[in-house]
Amino acid sequence: KQARQLENELDLKLVSFSKLCTSYSGTRDGRRDSSDTTPLLNGSGQDRMFETMAVEIEQLLGKLTGINDKMAEYTNSAGVPSLNAALMHTLQRHRDILQDYTHEFHKTKANFLAIRERENLLGSVRKDIESYKSGSGVNNRRTELFLKEHEHLRNSDRLIEETISIAMATKENMTSQRGMLKSIQSKMNTLANRFPAVNSLIQRINLRKRRDSLILGGIIGICTILLLLYAFH
């Protein structure tokens, strides 16, 4: 009778415990779908209820285990026939029920703890998201300032690169012009070195022309004088 009474209590407790786990998951899912700003774990009452019911079920399981042990001791006592099939069947049935209840309790408890751990993790992530959203204005303003400063730096770098490119092109042009000036200067020096010889040659030619003119003038004069002398004689 004690075993059946404990089993009935355990059955009711386990049903309530399973409903608590289901309602806990459904409540969290409903909150997660209805609003992004609602805390995921606002069910501290459900957590306390879970702890209370878990302790009560563990106590009932302990009592039922004790009753089964006493029944096993009774069946193993010297005054009880060892071949009473009905008695052994009853004891085995109570043991199976205890094992099923124990397994169901641990399974439901593990599922509840897994759901609560998942919700805790999701709640932490959502808190981080909310804190990020709350400071998004300041972060956006700061990010915008950083982007503007970065753009200014890029423009300055581009201007510096253009200035350097212009300076390099100017340097190359000046180098090329310097080479051309050196070439012209060398040609002018060569011509200047050649001019004295040309002048000397021209002077010699002029002198020869003058000499030839004097000789031709002398011959013409002599011939004229001879012709005059011949004419008067």
UniProtKB/TrEMBL annotation:
Residues 36-45 have a biased composition (Polar residues). GO terms for biological process: endoplasmic reticulum to Golgi vesicle-mediated transport; inter-Golgi cisterna vesicle-mediated transport; protein transport; vesicle fusion. Signal peptide: none annotated. The keyword Protein transport applies. Keywords: Golgi apparatus, Membrane, Protein transport, Receptor, Transmembrane, Transmembrane helix, Transport. Its main location: Golgi. GO terms for molecular function: SNAP receptor activity. Pfam families: V-SNARE_C (PF12352). GO terms for cellular component: cis-Golgi network; Golgi medial cisterna; Golgi membrane; SNARE complex. It comes from the Eukaryota. It is found in: Golgi apparatus membrane. The chain crosses the membrane at residues 214-232. Residues 24-45 are annotated as: Disordered. It is a single-pass type IV membrane protein. InterPro entries: Golgi_SNAP_su1. Belongs to the GOSR1 family. Involved in transport from the ER to the Golgi apparatus as well as in intra-Golgi transport. It belongs to a super-family of proteins called t-SNAREs or soluble NSF (N-ethylmaleimide-sensitive factor) attachment protein receptor. May play a protective role against hydrogen peroxide induced cytotoxicity under glutathione depleted conditions in neuronal cells by regulating the intracellular ROS levels via inhibition of p38 MAPK (MAPK11, MAPK12, MAPK13 and MAPK14). Participates in docking and fusion stage of ER to cis-Golgi transport. This is Golgi SNAP receptor complex member 1. It comes from Pterocles gutturalis (yellow-throated sandgrouse).
